[in-house]
Amino acid sequence: MFIHGWACDHTYLAPQIEHFSHSHRVLGADLRGHGASDKPEQEYTMPGLAADVAWLCGRLAIEKPVLIGHSMGALVALELLAGAPDGAAAVVALDAPIVMPPHRHAQLRRACERLTGPNFDHAVRRFVESMFLPTDDPVRKASIVERMTSGPRQVLISAMNQFLACASASAATAGPISVPLLAVASAGGHMADLDRLRELCPRLSLGQTVGAGHFHQLEVPDQVNAMIERFLAVSLP
Asked: Which residue of 60, 76, 201, 235 has the lowest C-beta tally within 10 Å?
């Protein structure tokens, strides 16, 4: 089950969906408020989005899927796991701000504050553009920036506020993660407090892609796919 990030949709994991569809049953849905899904006027909480994913799995009779989340999508996956410890076989977090150290949390909080200021369009564009490295493909970058900044304002602000609240809470109160977890950072480095994450997850595996920014699953899909494949082979024989 592939879960996309903030202001994205399932196509942001298209290389992984295509790759793993040859050997696995694969699902990729647009979260509520994103992509082709409905966008009601409401708060977009991480537990609420996790409940939607759990509902979808239930409707499709999917038991204990591997949850693969990019960025905010990994927080949604861990929220689902917190509510149903037996609800997943494993979790993969792709460049995700889980169990963030204080300086990372402060960076995210400042970005969130700018989104709720008077110049929303400029702030959201600046935030999205900060996710890239100079080595990332410029055409792909331009496309991602345009798509991510065109979402409904109320969805983007609410999801970001709730994303921040969830990330803040997880740093202090996160419970044990009983299933295997693979955390793959981009070239910018891990966002997590790795010592704390190791305490929470004895079955933690770490990876990092080379030469790609936050959207490494699109920029260097072969690297990401290979790490997920190996993780599944050794963690879920």
From this structure: 60
Instruction: Find the domain containing 60 and state its range.
Output: 2-235
Q: Give tens-digit pLDDT for 186-209.
A: 999 999 889 989 999 999 999 999
Can you tell me which residue has the tokens 């997943």? 88
Q: Confidence band (pLDDT; 50, 70, 90) for 101?
A: confident
- Looking up residue 37, the CATH number of its domain turns out to be 3.40.50.1820
Work out how many domains the chain is built from and give that number.
1
Q: Report the b/e string of 156-189 with b at 16+ CB within 10 A.
A: bbbbbbbbbebbeebbeebeebebbbbbbbbbbe
Q: Between 102 and 169, where is the model more confident?
A: 102
Q: How far apart are CA 74 and CA 79, in angstroms?
A: 9
Helix (H) or strand (E) holding 94: strand 90-94
Instruction: Give the integer Cα–Cα distance in Å for 184 and 23.
Output: 21
Q: Would you call 219 helix, strand, or coil by DSSP?
A: helix
pTM for this model (two decimals): 0.95
Question: Which positions ≥6 away from 62 have C-beta within 8 Å?
Answer: 1, 25, 27
Neighbours of 219 (CB within 10 A): 23
